[in-house]
Amino acid sequence: TSKHLSESVKDITGRTAMQVLDDLLVSRSKLLLNERGGSISQVAYDLAFGDPSLFSKFFKRMTGLSPREFRGGGAF
Question: Which of 21, 37, 52, 75 could be disulfide-bonded to 44 (CB atoms 3.0-4.6 Å)?
């Protein structure tokens, strides 16, 4: 069940399943942002964010940097 999965993840990692998923999403975001070919908007859509501004808010909350800051000033 999802409850069992959540409890197992918490027991093994000390973090909630959502925290683990968020960490994975941030890691994937960083990889895609480092690929200079795509726009930040494209990264947002590739990661299933319906709106690039939602992706930017999520990324800033998780990393302390906007996607543009992380990328070093790349275009939005």
Answer: 52
Tokens standing for residue 76: 């939005």
The CB-based long-range contact list for 24-28 (8 Å cut-off, 24+ gap) reads 25/58, 26/59, 26/62, 26/63
pTM above 0.90, yes or no: no
Residue 76 has pLDDT above 80, yes or no: no
Closest C-alpha among 62, 65, 61, 26 to residue 47:
26
For residues 53 and 43, what is the distance between their CA atoms, to the nearest angstrom? 11
Q: What is the dihedral of CA 23, 29, 33, 34, to 10 degrees?
A: 50
Helices marked H in 1-76 — which ranges? Answer: 2-13, 17-34, 40-46, 52-63, 67-71
Q: Which amino acid is at 44?
A: A
